[in-house]
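Homework help board

Subject: predicted structure for assignment chain

Our instructor gave us this sequence and asked us to write out the predicted structure in C-alpha coordinate form, then describe one feature. I got the C-alpha coordinates but I'm not sure how to describe them. Can anyone check?
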Amino acid sequence: MILKYFLSEGVVCRHELFVATAQDDPDDILQELPAPILDDVAIHKPLEQPLLSCEPSNSLDAMKIAWRYQNLPKVQSALASSSRFGHYYDVSKTMEPEIRQAAKCHRFYLPEHPTLSSPTHSPVLESYSALLKSLQDIIHKEGFDVAAPMSRPRNILRIGLHSLGSALWGDDLTCHDNPAHRHALTTFLYGLRALLRSSLAVAVVTVSSHLIQDRALMGSITRLCDNAIALESFKGSERETNPLYKDYHGLLHVRQVPHLNCLASQLPDHKDLAFKLKRKQFTIERLHLPPDLSETVSRVSRGEQAGAAAVASACGSGTSGNKHLDF
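My C-alpha coordinate output:
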Protein backbone atom coordinates (compact mmCIF):
# COMPACT_ATOMS: atom_id res chain seq x y z
CA MET A 1 0.00 0.00 0.00
CA ILE A 2 2.85 2.41 0.79
CA LEU A 3 4.42 1.68 -2.59
CA LYS A 4 1.12 2.31 -4.38
CA TYR A 5 0.73 5.64 -2.61
CA PHE A 6 4.27 6.57 -3.64
CA LEU A 7 3.63 5.73 -7.29
CA SER A 8 0.22 7.43 -7.30
CA GLU A 9 1.77 10.64 -6.03
CA GLY A 10 4.25 10.45 -8.88
CA VAL A 11 1.47 10.09 -11.45
CA VAL A 12 -0.46 13.08 -10.08
CA CYS A 13 2.72 15.22 -9.93
CA ARG A 14 3.64 14.26 -13.53
CA HIS A 15 6.85 12.52 -12.48
CA GLU A 16 8.32 9.62 -14.42
CA LEU A 17 8.04 6.17 -12.85
CA PHE A 18 10.23 3.10 -12.75
CA VAL A 19 8.61 -0.07 -11.39
CA ALA A 20 10.60 -3.28 -10.87
CA THR A 21 9.03 -6.58 -9.82
CA ALA A 22 9.90 -10.26 -9.92
CA GLN A 23 6.45 -11.87 -9.63
CA ASP A 24 3.61 -9.50 -10.51
CA ASP A 25 3.72 -7.67 -13.79
CA PRO A 26 4.49 -3.96 -13.29
CA ASP A 27 1.46 -3.09 -15.42
CA ASP A 28 -0.78 -4.93 -12.95
CA ILE A 29 0.59 -2.84 -10.08
CA LEU A 30 0.02 0.37 -12.03
CA GLN A 31 -3.57 -0.63 -12.78
CA GLU A 32 -4.23 -1.04 -9.04
CA LEU A 33 -3.08 2.45 -8.05
CA PRO A 34 -5.66 4.27 -5.90
CA ALA A 35 -7.66 7.05 -7.49
CA PRO A 36 -6.79 10.62 -6.47
CA ILE A 37 -9.45 12.79 -4.88
CA LEU A 38 -9.48 15.79 -7.20
CA ASP A 39 -12.31 17.81 -5.65
CA ASP A 40 -11.67 21.44 -4.75
CA VAL A 41 -12.37 20.86 -1.09
CA ALA A 42 -9.68 18.22 -0.61
CA ILE A 43 -7.00 19.98 -2.64
CA HIS A 44 -7.42 23.73 -2.33
CA LYS A 45 -8.97 24.09 1.12
CA PRO A 46 -6.30 24.49 3.82
CA LEU A 47 -6.38 22.22 6.79
CA GLU A 48 -7.75 23.71 9.96
CA GLN A 49 -5.24 23.23 12.73
CA PRO A 50 -6.61 22.16 16.11
CA LEU A 51 -6.02 24.54 18.98
CA LEU A 52 -4.35 22.91 21.95
CA SER A 53 -5.48 25.24 24.70
CA CYS A 54 -4.74 24.45 28.29
CA GLU A 55 -7.69 26.53 29.53
CA PRO A 56 -11.27 25.24 29.40
CA SER A 57 -13.42 26.95 26.78
CA ASN A 58 -16.27 27.57 29.20
CA SER A 59 -17.47 26.66 32.61
CA LEU A 60 -19.19 23.52 31.30
CA ASP A 61 -15.81 21.99 30.36
CA ALA A 62 -14.55 22.18 33.92
CA MET A 63 -13.96 18.69 35.29
CA LYS A 64 -15.62 17.74 38.55
CA ILE A 65 -13.92 14.40 39.23
CA ALA A 66 -10.70 14.12 37.19
CA TRP A 67 -9.83 17.75 37.83
CA ARG A 68 -6.11 16.99 37.75
CA TYR A 69 -6.33 16.42 33.96
CA GLN A 70 -8.23 19.63 33.31
CA ASN A 71 -5.18 21.70 32.35
CA LEU A 72 -3.61 19.04 30.10
CA PRO A 73 -3.90 19.40 26.31
CA LYS A 74 -6.25 17.09 24.49
CA VAL A 75 -4.77 14.19 22.51
CA GLN A 76 -4.93 14.69 18.75
CA SER A 77 -4.89 11.38 16.86
CA ALA A 78 -4.36 12.93 13.44
CA LEU A 79 -0.84 13.89 12.42
CA ALA A 80 -1.36 17.60 11.84
CA SER A 81 1.25 19.54 9.88
CA SER A 82 1.87 23.21 9.33
CA SER A 83 1.24 23.02 5.58
CA ARG A 84 -0.64 20.87 3.10
CA PHE A 85 1.59 18.17 1.61
CA GLY A 86 0.71 15.71 -1.12
CA HIS A 87 -2.71 14.55 -2.24
CA TYR A 88 -5.49 12.36 -0.94
CA TYR A 89 -6.42 9.05 -2.53
CA ASP A 90 -9.48 6.81 -2.50
CA VAL A 91 -8.35 3.21 -2.01
CA SER A 92 -11.81 1.90 -2.92
CA LYS A 93 -11.34 3.07 -6.52
CA THR A 94 -8.56 2.65 -9.05
CA MET A 95 -6.96 5.45 -10.99
CA GLU A 96 -8.48 6.38 -14.33
CA PRO A 97 -6.49 5.11 -17.34
CA GLU A 98 -6.31 8.65 -18.77
CA ILE A 99 -4.61 9.94 -15.63
CA ARG A 100 -2.31 6.93 -15.32
CA GLN A 101 -1.21 6.98 -18.95
CA ALA A 102 -0.34 10.67 -18.76
CA ALA A 103 2.76 9.79 -16.72
CA LYS A 104 5.68 8.09 -18.43
CA CYS A 105 6.51 4.76 -16.83
CA HIS A 106 9.54 2.49 -17.22
CA ARG A 107 9.16 -1.13 -16.22
CA PHE A 108 11.49 -3.93 -15.19
CA TYR A 109 9.97 -7.41 -15.09
CA LEU A 110 12.55 -10.00 -14.03
CA PRO A 111 11.19 -12.92 -16.13
CA GLU A 112 11.71 -10.75 -19.22
CA HIS A 113 15.41 -10.31 -18.35
CA PRO A 114 17.06 -13.75 -18.44
CA THR A 115 20.12 -13.97 -16.24
CA LEU A 116 23.44 -15.47 -17.20
CA SER A 117 23.75 -19.22 -16.88
CA SER A 118 27.48 -19.21 -16.16
CA PRO A 119 28.54 -18.60 -12.56
CA THR A 120 30.13 -15.26 -11.75
CA HIS A 121 32.33 -14.12 -8.88
CA SER A 122 30.46 -10.84 -8.35
CA PRO A 123 29.00 -10.32 -4.85
CA VAL A 124 25.82 -8.99 -6.48
CA LEU A 125 23.25 -11.44 -7.80
CA GLU A 126 22.65 -11.48 -11.53
CA SER A 127 19.08 -10.29 -11.02
CA TYR A 128 20.26 -7.31 -8.98
CA SER A 129 22.99 -6.57 -11.52
CA ALA A 130 20.45 -6.53 -14.36
CA LEU A 131 18.18 -4.25 -12.33
CA LEU A 132 21.02 -1.87 -11.50
CA LYS A 133 22.13 -1.82 -15.15
CA SER A 134 18.59 -1.03 -16.32
CA LEU A 135 18.31 1.80 -13.79
CA GLN A 136 21.65 3.25 -14.83
CA ASP A 137 20.70 3.21 -18.53
CA ILE A 138 17.39 4.98 -17.90
CA ILE A 139 19.00 7.63 -15.68
CA HIS A 140 21.60 8.45 -18.34
CA LYS A 141 19.32 8.23 -21.39
CA GLU A 142 16.32 10.09 -19.97
CA GLY A 143 18.34 13.01 -18.60
CA PHE A 144 18.10 12.32 -14.87
CA ASP A 145 21.87 12.47 -14.39
CA VAL A 146 22.88 15.66 -12.59
CA ALA A 147 26.23 15.81 -14.38
CA ALA A 148 24.63 15.57 -17.85
CA PRO A 149 24.00 18.82 -19.77
CA MET A 150 20.43 20.04 -19.46
CA SER A 151 18.98 19.81 -22.97
CA ARG A 152 15.32 19.72 -21.86
CA PRO A 153 13.26 20.52 -18.76
CA ARG A 154 14.25 18.44 -15.77
CA ASN A 155 11.91 15.97 -14.12
CA ILE A 156 11.95 13.56 -11.18
CA LEU A 157 12.23 9.80 -11.50
CA ARG A 158 10.30 7.81 -8.89
CA ILE A 159 11.68 4.28 -8.49
CA GLY A 160 9.60 1.52 -6.91
CA LEU A 161 11.37 -1.79 -6.20
CA HIS A 162 9.00 -4.46 -4.97
CA SER A 163 9.90 -7.25 -2.52
CA LEU A 164 13.68 -7.30 -2.77
CA GLY A 165 15.49 -10.02 -0.87
CA SER A 166 12.88 -12.66 -1.66
CA ALA A 167 13.47 -15.96 -3.42
CA LEU A 168 11.78 -14.56 -6.54
CA TRP A 169 14.87 -12.42 -7.10
CA GLY A 170 17.15 -15.43 -6.59
CA ASP A 171 18.02 -14.30 -3.08
CA ASP A 172 17.84 -16.57 -0.03
CA LEU A 173 17.69 -13.99 2.77
CA THR A 174 14.14 -14.98 3.67
CA CYS A 175 14.66 -18.72 3.21
CA HIS A 176 17.62 -19.67 5.41
CA ASP A 177 19.05 -18.63 8.74
CA ASN A 178 22.54 -18.58 7.21
CA PRO A 179 21.97 -17.42 3.60
CA ALA A 180 24.59 -18.03 0.94
CA HIS A 181 23.99 -14.60 -0.63
CA ARG A 182 24.29 -12.77 2.64
CA HIS A 183 25.71 -9.53 1.24
CA ALA A 184 23.93 -9.49 -2.13
CA LEU A 185 21.16 -7.09 -1.12
CA THR A 186 23.44 -4.76 0.84
CA THR A 187 25.86 -4.57 -2.09
CA PHE A 188 22.96 -3.71 -4.39
CA LEU A 189 21.81 -0.98 -1.99
CA TYR A 190 25.30 0.55 -2.05
CA GLY A 191 25.10 0.75 -5.84
CA LEU A 192 21.57 2.15 -5.70
CA ARG A 193 22.63 4.86 -3.25
CA ALA A 194 25.47 5.86 -5.57
CA LEU A 195 23.04 6.24 -8.47
CA LEU A 196 20.54 8.24 -6.45
CA ARG A 197 23.17 10.63 -5.08
CA SER A 198 24.13 11.73 -8.58
CA SER A 199 20.69 11.79 -10.19
CA LEU A 200 17.26 13.39 -9.86
CA ALA A 201 15.65 10.24 -8.56
CA VAL A 202 14.11 8.86 -5.40
CA ALA A 203 13.46 5.20 -4.64
CA VAL A 204 11.18 3.17 -2.39
CA VAL A 205 12.30 -0.40 -1.69
CA THR A 206 10.03 -2.95 0.00
CA VAL A 207 11.58 -5.87 1.90
CA SER A 208 9.87 -8.67 3.82
CA SER A 209 11.80 -7.87 6.98
CA HIS A 210 9.77 -10.21 9.20
CA LEU A 211 11.15 -13.18 7.24
CA ILE A 212 14.81 -12.21 7.71
CA GLN A 213 16.12 -14.03 10.77
CA ASP A 214 19.50 -12.30 10.98
CA ARG A 215 18.86 -9.12 12.98
CA ALA A 216 22.39 -7.81 12.38
CA LEU A 217 21.91 -8.10 8.63
CA MET A 218 18.54 -6.37 8.89
CA GLY A 219 20.21 -3.57 10.82
CA SER A 220 22.76 -3.14 8.03
CA ILE A 221 19.96 -2.94 5.46
CA THR A 222 18.19 -0.32 7.56
CA ARG A 223 21.30 1.84 7.93
CA LEU A 224 21.79 1.83 4.16
CA CYS A 225 18.45 3.61 3.76
CA ASP A 226 17.87 7.31 4.28
CA ASN A 227 14.44 6.66 5.72
CA ALA A 228 13.15 3.30 6.93
CA ILE A 229 9.75 2.36 8.32
CA ALA A 230 8.32 -1.01 9.29
CA LEU A 231 4.66 -2.04 9.24
CA GLU A 232 3.64 -4.57 11.90
CA SER A 233 0.25 -6.04 11.13
CA PHE A 234 -2.05 -7.38 13.85
CA LYS A 235 -3.31 -10.11 11.52
CA GLY A 236 -2.77 -13.50 13.14
CA SER A 237 -1.24 -12.08 16.33
CA GLU A 238 -2.54 -11.73 19.86
CA ARG A 239 -3.04 -8.01 19.40
CA GLU A 240 -5.73 -8.67 16.80
CA THR A 241 -8.19 -9.64 19.55
CA ASN A 242 -6.85 -7.20 22.12
CA PRO A 243 -9.51 -4.55 22.84
CA LEU A 244 -6.81 -1.91 23.26
CA TYR A 245 -5.96 -2.11 19.55
CA LYS A 246 -9.46 -2.64 18.19
CA ASP A 247 -9.40 0.66 16.27
CA TYR A 248 -6.17 -0.13 14.38
CA HIS A 249 -4.87 -2.75 11.97
CA GLY A 250 -1.19 -2.52 12.87
CA LEU A 251 1.73 -0.48 14.14
CA LEU A 252 4.11 1.72 12.19
CA HIS A 253 7.70 1.76 13.46
CA VAL A 254 10.12 4.49 12.39
CA ARG A 255 13.47 2.70 12.10
CA GLN A 256 15.53 5.37 10.36
CA VAL A 257 15.06 9.08 9.67
CA PRO A 258 17.00 11.16 7.12
CA HIS A 259 20.17 12.90 8.28
CA LEU A 260 21.60 14.28 5.05
CA ASN A 261 24.22 17.03 5.36
CA CYS A 262 23.83 17.27 9.13
CA LEU A 263 25.49 15.84 12.21
CA ALA A 264 22.34 14.42 13.77
CA SER A 265 18.88 13.66 12.48
CA GLN A 266 15.76 15.33 13.78
CA LEU A 267 13.78 12.95 15.94
CA PRO A 268 10.03 12.76 15.34
CA ASP A 269 7.73 14.18 17.97
CA HIS A 270 5.76 10.95 18.27
CA LYS A 271 7.26 7.52 17.76
CA ASP A 272 4.17 5.51 18.70
CA LEU A 273 2.23 5.39 15.45
CA ALA A 274 -0.50 3.06 14.24
CA PHE A 275 -2.23 2.58 10.91
CA LYS A 276 -5.68 1.48 9.88
CA LEU A 277 -7.20 0.78 6.50
CA LYS A 278 -10.60 2.36 6.19
CA ARG A 279 -13.06 1.82 3.39
CA LYS A 280 -11.66 4.68 1.34
CA GLN A 281 -8.46 5.74 3.06
CA PHE A 282 -5.23 4.45 4.56
CA THR A 283 -4.53 6.54 7.65
CA ILE A 284 -1.60 6.81 10.07
CA GLU A 285 -2.38 8.16 13.53
CA ARG A 286 -0.74 8.61 16.89
CA LEU A 287 -1.22 5.55 19.04
CA HIS A 288 -2.91 6.35 22.32
CA LEU A 289 -4.82 3.92 24.46
CA PRO A 290 -8.48 4.65 25.21
CA PRO A 291 -9.63 5.12 28.82
CA ASP A 292 -10.33 1.95 30.76
CA LEU A 293 -14.12 1.89 31.07
CA SER A 294 -14.45 -1.75 32.07
CA GLU A 295 -16.88 -2.77 34.78
CA THR A 296 -14.23 -4.57 36.80
CA VAL A 297 -12.69 -2.13 39.26
CA SER A 298 -10.02 -2.63 41.87
CA ARG A 299 -12.38 -2.38 44.81
CA VAL A 300 -13.63 -4.98 47.22
CA SER A 301 -17.22 -5.87 46.40
CA ARG A 302 -19.95 -6.17 49.01
CA GLY A 303 -20.01 -9.93 48.66
CA GLU A 304 -16.30 -10.17 49.34
CA GLN A 305 -16.67 -7.87 52.32
CA ALA A 306 -19.48 -10.00 53.77
CA GLY A 307 -17.50 -13.20 53.22
CA ALA A 308 -14.43 -11.72 54.81
CA ALA A 309 -16.48 -10.53 57.80
CA ALA A 310 -17.96 -14.01 58.26
CA VAL A 311 -14.56 -15.65 58.18
CA ALA A 312 -13.20 -13.09 60.62
CA SER A 313 -16.05 -13.61 63.09
CA ALA A 314 -15.70 -17.40 62.84
CA CYS A 315 -12.06 -17.15 63.70
CA GLY A 316 -12.83 -15.02 66.72
CA SER A 317 -11.31 -11.86 65.33
CA GLY A 318 -12.83 -8.61 66.35
CA THR A 319 -11.75 -6.68 63.27
CA SER A 320 -13.96 -5.94 60.30
CA GLY A 321 -13.63 -7.55 56.87
CA ASN A 322 -12.03 -4.54 55.21
CA LYS A 323 -8.45 -4.27 56.38
CA HIS A 324 -8.07 -0.77 54.91
CA LEU A 325 -10.62 0.57 57.44
CA ASP A 326 -9.14 -1.16 60.49
CA PHE A 327 -7.80 1.10 63.24
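Reply (TA_rk): Your C-alpha coordinates look well-formed. For the description, you could write something like this. The chain is about 25% helix and 20% strand. That's the kind of observation they're looking for.
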